[in-house]
Request: fold
Amino acid sequence: MEVAVKSLAPQASFGGGRVLAADYAWEEEGLFISVRLDGEVWEFRDREILDPRYTAVDRQRRIKERVRLGIRRLFERVYGLAESPWGILEGVRPMKMVHAMLDRGFPPEELRGILLEVYALSPKKAQLLLEVAAKQRPYFHANPNNPISIYVGIPFCPTRCSYCSFAAYPLATHGHLLKGFLQALHREIEAVGGLIKELQLQVESVYLGGGTPTTVQGAELERLLSLMRENLFTAETREFTVEAGRPETLSRDTLRLLKEGGAQRICINPQTMHDATLQAIGRKHTVAQVREAFALAREVGIPLINMDIILGLPGEELAQVRGTLEEIAALGPDNLTVHSLALKRASTLRKNLEQVYIAQEQGEAMVDLARDYALSWGMQPYYLYRQRHILGDLENIGYALPGTHSIYNIQMMEERQSILALGGGGVSKLVAPDLTLRRQVNPKCPAAYSAQINEHLADKLKLLREHFSGSGPNSN
Reply:
């Protein structure tokens, strides 16, 4: 086995002439890593990576993982960098690594040790990943293209929230584009529906999101739901979710149309149950409207209701989060999605950060409080993801009562199933049998989407035929 020490990269100078360097060597005892920051040194011998369940690619990746851990440890020692509960597991989808290890035969208890020792997770986060993995595994299929799921995006909202960076255009400035957008979307639904029938694809779940899809009202909403049901649903469709997030869009008639259109699950997303905060973040609805929309949805008979909240909103501390959770407890949703505020580049909130107080020091306490409430309601965590610039280096978690997990949320986040995305800003993810991805992106702007629909559809249908002819439901 190779024993010569190799320099991982040239020495790097930064911050007042400090020098950072790293070396590695493969020895009989495993991988040797040395990381140096001026006079401070971190060294480690990794024997676990010699396990035969690891591949050559894994071993190359482990070099970078160990160096990253060494750099973090030195920065903690030299600069007092705070420990992260997620250690060096920095990606958006930490569950993907966990599932990959489980696929290879690492049992949960052994995997827990790897999460603690290799990735430096806190015991609480390691346990969270294993809990979520246990909930998700039963939803995975042997063939990522049988069945598939569908996403339909409506990129319009009543107003634009200050934390938002999604493809979401306020009706006040872009409402004149809605009619043309819907005409183009109808064409895409019919074209993709024809392909689904032609290729005999099975559709497991359908998600109508945005934006706020319930900005589409009355006859236009009824027509949209009818087209989706006719073209995108198959006999295998188990779930239809509508992201009816803004309560001011949810009249009794709109909720009735959703119920008659087959919606089994809707999202009513207050983000907070404090009127002052709602106004500060540009929501333009009230807590009273949240309560009213929720009650109407129950009266109409929508089977499942999810609610979203965001931790770390401007001016909110632990007491305000507790107040929001108490209000939600009184309503009794079936799912709760807890977001830790992430200040994205395109959001107004990040651009005006100097005017905003973010309770970073209370982030973990907020997350723990939300978890305590969700567990007390009988919910369990079933999906999670992380984002850059997120509150307290934490995570977003979806909780659900038994039997109410969102299939779409699991499949979308873990990328174990091909998902066809229609509408504004939709990103189709085509999953190969080896779980590698190919993406196809729709135009974000409603005007561009409408103008480019003919060219866009031709290219999209060609790509889908190529993909499913090689890895579709009739392939081995």
The chain is about 40% helix and 20% strand. Confidence is low (pLDDT under 50) at residues 351-357, 471-476.
